[in-house]
Design a protein that fits this description.
3 helices, two-stranded parallel ribbon, mainly alpha, 83 residues
Length: 83
């Protein structure tokens, strides 16, 4: 369980939300952001706990597969719902 501090990233994984599951900071602010969270244990712990919860429950392999197949099904059917 570690805090991730990163430059802003492209939304390739929409489940990961900045400042909820990780901290996003401009490159010139990275060092100060890291120091801030080292000094603010409760805020750091809140983000780390949310990230852990997401990894252990929200991104389980079975859930990920369901989302993948649903997206593929929607793509193939052109967004039409199943009968």
């Amino acid at each position: 369980r570690s805090l991730v501090v990163s430059e802003p990233v492209l939304p390739h994984c929409t489940e990961f939300k900045a400042n909820i599951h990780y901290v996003a900071a401009k490159i010139e602010d990275l060092a100060n952001t890291i120091v801030y969270y080292v000094e603010h244990d409760e805020e750091r712990r809140r983000i780390v706990d949310k990230a852990y919860e997401l990894m252990m429950d929200g991104l389980k392999f079975e859930k990920s597969l369901r989302k993948m197949f649903a997206a593929a099904r929607q793509h193939v059917t052109g967004g039409a719902s199943e009968a």
